[in-house]
Amino acid sequence: MGRRTEGEESAAPGARPLRRDAELNRRRILQAGREVFAARGLQATLNDVAHHAGLGVGTVYRKYPDKQTLAEAVFGEELDEIAAMAREARAEDDAFAALAGFLERALARAAHNRGLRELMRHGTLEGAALTRARREITSHCEHLVARARTQGALRDGVTEADIAPIAAMIDAVMALPAEHPSETWRRYLAIILDGLRAHPRQAPLPGPPRTPPARIPGADQP
């Protein structure tokens, strides 16, 4: 048996060994994909990713033959990491605090990731890894909601089905122009979370709006 050369890694029996530089390129492409999709959204191209990664377009196409394949790989990892956040939240004693903390962490990630928000909004990517991660996130959230209800922390009538629309509402706030968007969405998340509580608290709201609320036509008419 020949000696494995430096730069190659072991692989499953019968599989061609993956060279270390090839694996490094794969990780480099995925990282570039994360950064490009986060900044430009899902309309970014494989050429954009190749340029950002400092690699030839052919190298990217050999690894990922189309944008859909790369986007599914990138966001599969993103959703896996969000699923891990939800899984960790289940270990907390206070289920409502755990659910609120998870929503804030997950939405904070989406606030700076245009592609992730587009994925959440439209769900146009449906690879197996994405489907599995979505199901895991949903399962963890259902568990937290059920436990918060059992603990008496959740107002009557709130169900697991309310979580996705809440995320969509916060996404809409993130899309609004604002001087400090990170403060704005956190403010409205706090308002929504207080509305979910069985016993709303009067904690100060984060980040007051920087501009007056929009005038409602006819509101000042007798």
TrEMBL record:
Domain HTH tetR-type: residue ranges: 23-82
Pfam families listed in its UniProt record: TetR_C_43, TetR_N
Signal peptide: none
Keywords assigned by UniProt, alphabetized: DNA-binding, Transcription, Transcription regulation
Span list, region Disordered: 200-222
Gene3D superfamilies in the cross-refs: Tetracycline Repressor, domain 2
Source domain of life: Bacteria
Compositional bias ranges of the Pro residues kind: 203-215
GO MF terms, alphabetically ordered: DNA-binding transcription factor activity; transcription cis-regulatory region binding
Feature: DNA-binding region: 45-64
InterPro entries for the chain: Homeodomain-like_sf, HTH-type_TetR-like_transc_reg, HTH_TetR, Tet_transcr_reg_TetR-rel_C_sf, TetR_SbtR-like_C
Protein name: TetR family transcriptional regulator
Organism from which the protein derives: Streptomyces sparsogenes DSM 40356
